[in-house]
Design goal:
- By secondary structure, this protein is α+β, with helices and mostly antiparallel strands.
- It has a single domain (2-61), classed as Roll (Ubiquitin-like (UB roll)), CATH 3.10.20.90.
- The chain has one helix and five strands; from the N terminus they run E-E-H-E-E-E.
- It has one helix at 23-30; strands at 2-6, 13-14, 37-41, 44-45, 56-61.
- The longest helix has 8 residues, at 23-30.
- The relative contact order is 0.34.
Length: 66
């Protein structure tokens, strides 16, 4: 899975995720607070408890990290 994290110090990432992994678990692996980001799959917002699908994912930081 290719992940772009926008408005953050985290660079572009490639992650291998097992089947059944949720977007919330991906955020945990990246050390991101789910309350401070918006998750976009193909330009559409997805809930954090949804199962992650292969492909490109954009995580947009919408709150200050400091």
């Amino acid at each position: 899975m290719h992940i772009d994290v926008v408005n953050s110090d985290i660079p572009h990432k490639e992650l291998e995720v097992s089947q059944g992994t949720t977007y919330e678990q991906i955020l945990e692996k990246l050390g991101l607070n789910q309350e401070t980001v918006l998750i976009l799959k193909n330009g559409q917002a997805v809930p954090v408890d949804a199962t992650a699908m292969s492909g490109s994912l954009t995580i947009m930081c919408i709150a200050s990290q400091g």
